[in-house]
Design brief:
This is Chemokine-like receptor 1 G-protein coupled receptor DEZ. By secondary structure, the chain is mainly α. It has a domain at about 1-70. Helix content is about 85%, strand content about 0%. It has six helices and no strands. It has helices at about 5-35, 40-70, 75-100, 105-125, 130-155, 160-199. It is elongated, with a radius of gyration of 24 Å. The protein starts with 5 loop residues before the first helix and ends with a helix.
Length: about 200
């Protein structure tokens, strides 16, 4: 098990944090953009991106377990299927992020670049130190996974559609609360007045 290595332990902790933030963040985005926001082209793209990243995050515990145990224990099918989901997420994220906007693509590039650099270096592995490739791939994979929790933050929470929707929902909820409180106080006051006139 790699739990004795400081780098591995750090990457495991980072991966668990990515899983938790990515899973919860994307679930929130799916709920808000899927059910609470007006349907627009942008919300459709946000929803699609959130679903893609949510599915990726749902499969992240398999990779975390693999990293911790340093062996794959889930069988051949899940090995292939997990890889399929990872690459499907990568390509769907690329497509969706390019569609959403080119300037926001930079965040995706930063997250996935180290992974792809080390994958390319691995093709010519006999010319490179195995430890460097192994460590680089671990770090690159963790950084690539970070893309799935950064997307809700960068593309939705900071987007004007999302902020406007959340703020209007909060204002609406506060207004409803004030109305409910006012009605309660008004009823309470009128009941007190009636009670005092009967005494």
């Amino acid at each position: 098990m790699c739990l004795k290595e400081p780098l591995c332990l750090t990457l495991l902790v980072v991966s668990v944090v990515i899983f938790l933030l990515g899973f919860c963040g994307n679930a929130l985005v799916i709920w808000i953009s899927g059910f609470k926001m007006k349907k627009t082209v942008n919300t459709t793209w946000y929803l699609s991106l959130a679903i893609s990243d949510f599915v990726f995050c749902a499969f992240l515990p398999f990779s975390i377990t693999n990293m911790a145990m340093e062996e794959w224990i889930f069988g051949r099918f899940m090995c292939k299927f997990t890889s399929f989901v990872k690459f499907l997420n990568m390509f769907s994220s690329i497509f969706l992020l390019v569609v959403i906007s080119v300037d926001r693509f930079v965040a995706f590039f930063i997250c996935w670049l180290p992974y792809h650099v080390f994958v390319l270096l691995e093709l010519n592995h006999q010319n490179y130190d195995h430890t460097i490739l192994y460590t680089g791939l671990k770090i690159g994979t963790s950084m690539a996974a970070a893309n799935s929790f950064l997307n809700p933050v960068l593309y939705v929470f900071m987007g004007n559609d999302f902020k406007g929707s959340v703020l209007s929902k909060m204002e609406h909820a506060m207004a409803d609360e004030e109305c409910t409180t006012s009605r309660y106080l008004l009823r309470s006051s009128s009941m007190d007045n009636r009670a005092s006139t009967h005494i």
